[in-house]
Amino acid sequence: MFLLTKQWLGAWFSLSGLRWVWDGDTTGTKPALGTGNKGLEKATGGFVPHFVIDYAPYVHLYSEEIFLPGDIGEHLEHTIPYLNYTPLTSLHTRQSLTSLSHLNRFGPHVYLTSDDDPETQPSWLRGDHNRPVPIGHGETDVGASTAPGIIIWTEKENNVTDAFYFYFYSFNLGNTVAGWRFGNHVGDWEHTAVRFIDGVPQSIFYSEHSGGVAYEYGAVEKIGIRPVCYSAVGSHANYARPGTHYYAIPFHLLADHTDKGPLWDVTKNSYMYNYDVDHDILKPSRDTPGAPVDWFHFGGRWGDMMYRPGDRRQWVIAGQYHYVHGPTGPKFKNLARKEICQNEGVCVVRSSLTEEAEIPFVTLEGWDGEDVDEWAGLPDEKEKRN
Ligand SMILES: *[C@@H]1O[C@H](CO)[C@@H](O)[C@H](O)[C@H]1NC(C)=O
C-alpha cells in the first residue's frame, strides 16, 4: 500500500524527473561520441601497477542473487542494435567487442536490444554459468567468474592514479514498492573506484544507482588489505556495508539489500586497460594483451530502450517506470573525474562507515529543464508522461 500524501507524490514525481536525467549519465565532462584515438594506440600499455591489483575490491554478491555477473562478449551474442525500436542489422549479424563503435555513426540513441523477452529470464541474461567459484573449490580459483571484470587505471596530475573496477551484469532487476517493481533494465554497469596517491590508496567510491558514496580508504571493511563491496540483489548497486539501504531519498520508498553472499574477485578474470583520458586512448594492459578495446568507445546503450506505453511490460507510477533504458558503458562514467565521486560538486568523502554524510537535497530550483528529451530519448515526451 502507498502511504503517500498527494504532496509527496507530487514531490517524488518532480524528483523523479531529475533522477531520470541522472539515470542515463552524470555530471562531469561528457566524452565525445568518437571511436577512440586509434592512430595513437600502440599495441599495449604497460603492466598494471601492482597496487591496482593489491587493493582491488572484493565483491559480495547477494546470497539469493539470480542476476549474476555477465560477460560483455556473450551479451553481444544475444542482442541486436536498435534505433527508434527498429533493428539496425539483420538478426543474423552479431556485433563484436572489437568492432562496436562503428554504431556511433547512428548517434547516441543506439540500444543493444535483447533477442529474448527479458521477462522470460533466459539463462544468458541471468548469467547462470558465471557464478563465482565458491570457497572450498580450489584455493587459487576462489572468487573467479567466467564473466570478466573490467579494470581500468588512469594516471592524473600529482601522481594520482584512479583505478576503476567495473562490474557488468546482463540484467538489472529493480526493487518493489507495494508490489510494483520499478527500474528494470537490460545491461547493467556498476563500478568501484579507488584513488591512489604515490601508489597509496586514499579513498574509494561505490556506485549506487545514479550516484554513489565515497569513503576514506581506511574507513571501509577489508579482507586482508583489500576493500569489500556489497552488490545489492537485483540492482547490483554497490555498498560498503551489508544490510538494507534506502534510496530515492528523502522518501525512503525503495530499498536495496546486501549480504555476504558469493565472493566475486575480479582480479581472477578481467580485461585490464590503461586509459589516457586526455587523448581518449584505451590500451590493454600487458597483463591481458588480448583484451578487446573497441567496445569501450561505443556511445550507445548496453540494453533495450525503455518499453513504450501500452507495452504489457511497461507501467509508470509517479514518474517511476517498470522498465527504463539500458545504461551507457564505462567510458561515460566520468573517468576524468577530479573528485573521487562520479557526480562531482556534491562529493562527500566519509571518514567512517557510520557517518551520516550530509545528503545533498536535490530540488528543481535552478534547473532549466534542458536535456530531458536527450536523456529520456523517447520519440514523444508527452506520450511518456501519460
Ligand atoms: C609516484 O608514485 C610512485 C608509486 O606509484 C612512486 O614510486 C613515486 O616515487 C611517486 N613519485 C613522486 C614524484 O612522488
Write a structural description.
By secondary structure, this protein is mostly beta strands. The protein has one domain. It contains six helices and 22 strands. It has helices at residues 6-24, 50-54, 72-76, 123-126, 372-376, 381-385; strands at residues 58-60, 79-83, 86-87, 110-114, 149-156, 160-172, 175-177, 180-182, 185-197, 200-208, 211-216, 222-223, 226-231, 238-239, 243-247, 254-258, 263-264, 270-276, 281-284, 316-317, 320-321, 349-350. The strands form six sheets. The chain has an eight-stranded mixed β-sheet. Strands 1, 12, 13, 14 and 17 form a five-stranded mixed β-sheet that branches. A three-stranded antiparallel β-sheet has the order 3-2-4, with no helix packed on it. The radius of gyration is 20 Å and the shape is globular. Mean pLDDT is 84; it is low at 1-28 and 357-386. It binds 2-acetamido-2-deoxy-beta-D-glucopyranose. Residues 159, 198-199 line the site of 2-acetamido-2-deoxy-beta-D-glucopyranose (NAG). InterPro entries: Vps62. This is (Perigord truffle) hypothetical protein.
What is the topological layout?
Blueprint: H1 6-24, H2 50-54, E1 58-60, H3 72-76, E2 79-83, E3 86-87, E4 110-114, H4 123-126, E5 149-156, E6 160-172, E7 175-177, E8 180-182, E9 185-197, E10 200-208, E11 211-216, E12 222-223, E13 226-231, E14 238-239, E15 243-247, E16 254-258, E17 263-264, E18 270-276, E19 281-284, E20 316-317, E21 320-321, E22 349-350, H5 372-376, H6 381-385
Parallel strand pairs: 1-13, 5-18, 11-22
Antiparallel strand pairs: 1-17, 2-3, 2-4, 5-6, 6-9, 7-8, 9-10, 10-11, 12-13, 13-14, 15-16, 18-19, 20-21
